[in-house]
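A protein record pairs a chain with a discrete description of its three-dimensional fold. The shape at a given residue is found from the number at the same position. Here is what such a record looks like in full:
>
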Amino acid sequence: MPINIPDNLPAAAVLKEENIFVMDQSRAIRQDIRPQRIVILNIMSVKHTTETHLLRLLSNTPLQIEIDLIHPRTHTSKNTPIEHLRTFYKTFDQIREHRYDGLIITGAPLGFINFEDVHYWEELKEIMDWAETHVTSTLYLCWGAQAALYHFYGIEKRLLKRKMFGVFKHRVPDRKIPLVRGFDDNFPAPHSRYMHIEKEDILKVEELQIIAESDVAGLYIIGTRDGEKIFVTGHSEYDPNTLKEEYERDLSKGMDIQMPVNYFPDDDPAKTPLVQWRSHANLLYTNWLNYYVYQVTPFDLEEDQ
């Protein structure tokens, strides 16, 4: 089944070029199927890039997926044209009365800023609290995961000595957890962050469980035992060249940035990066949509949950 996205969204052209089945809204409304309704709070700087990353993964499912894109009302984006936001995005105020099968809250380049100092922090807290009663399961990514762990459980993010940057091997402590069904014993995933979450802080919270971790990159996937909140500290959604582009961007700024590890063949930035994480990324999102959204969401979303 296809992913149902707004008519003329730029990501659609990219996905169709990759032979991914997408369906615009004008065609989807003619199908007698109850789609899974997913809302994405996109707080990344360059929104159209993140749209493509996430829509590519959400499309790899037999379900029909209906997408709403929202952005913080209290933040003015400097890297996304206002016309794009007006055409394809809503604000929380416009969707707060609706219920959704799933919510994705992206990361943001805010690692060095205290949560309370983020100018849209109050709005973000309101959205996270709203999701508790209006969303079946929420996927928090990278900085979004750190923000949610802090908001709900008071878990602080910790500064790393150096940026966790590259592609790292991970393992799953409990293979019976549905989110990791089909995962290999060791699977790769990209990370790009200056902050991390201490394992000891997670183990203190009975409601939380560690779903995947790495000897080098630390905690990767954390979740509540009821599956209503999933926290992913890395970037399985990244394109093949995203780490390369981040590396070149930081070099151009004169930053002291190390080469992303386990990424360039022979550690040669002139060579094309090899994608090692594509299968894992697709399986992660497919499992989330199937086991944590579709299998447990009510048929009538507007009924009391």
